[in-house]
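Translate sequence into C-alpha cells.
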Amino acid sequence: MPYHVTREGQTYGPYSLEDLQRYVASGNVLLTDLAKDDDATEWVPVAQILGVSAAPVAPPTAPGYVPAPVNPYLGPAASTFPDPPNLHWALVLVIAICTCGVFAVIWDFVQVLWVRRIEPGTKAFTYFLIYVVLSFINGGLSAGASAAVMAGHTAHRNPISFVIAIGVFVLVILYRFSMKNSIEQFYNTVEPIGLRLGPVMTFFFGGLYFQYHFNRINQIKQAARYGATRY
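Result follows.
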C-alpha cells in the first residue's frame, strides 16, 4: 500500500512500507513526519504507521529565536547516499570523442551504477546491461560484413543484425528514461531540490545531460557543506 509523507507543507511519495522503513533508518524521513495512504482521510505520524515510538519532541525555543532553514544536504542523513559522479560534462565529451565513444559507454555505466545505489529497484541497470551485450553482438555482425566488403565480396545486411540494431535503439531509450525517472524521484523526495529533467534532452544527450545536472548538484552540495563548516 503506497503512503504519502508531508513535512512543512510539502508532500512527498508515494512510498511503500519498505521505503518508509528504509528512509526512517537513514534519517531522511522522521518518525514525527505525517503520512497517510490513499484510502485514509487523516494524516498520522510515521511512527504510528510503522508501529514504533517517536522520538521526544524538543522543548520550545526562547522567544524571538528563529531556527535556521533546513538544508537537504546538511546533517547525518546527507551522508547515507553517495554524491553523483562529478567529472565535468565537457571533459566527458572530450574523452568520449578521443576514444571513439568508448568512454561515453563507460561513463554511462558509472552513472547507472550510481542510480542503482540510490534506487536499488531501478530497471535502468538491467536495460543498460542488455544494451551493452546487444551492442557487442551487433558490432561483431557488422565487422563481418565490413570484412567481406574489404575483401571485394558483396555484403548483404544480416536480417538478425537489423533486428538487433532496433533492439539496441529501444534499450537506449529505456535505460535513459529509467535513469531520468529514478533521478527525478530521488531529488524530489529523498533530497528534494525540485529537479526536472527534459525528455527531449534526455533522448538526444542522455549521459551528458545527466552529467551537466550532476555537476550542478555537486556544486550546491559542496557550497552547503562549506557554509556549514563556517558556523
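Note: The chain is about 55% helix and 5% strand.
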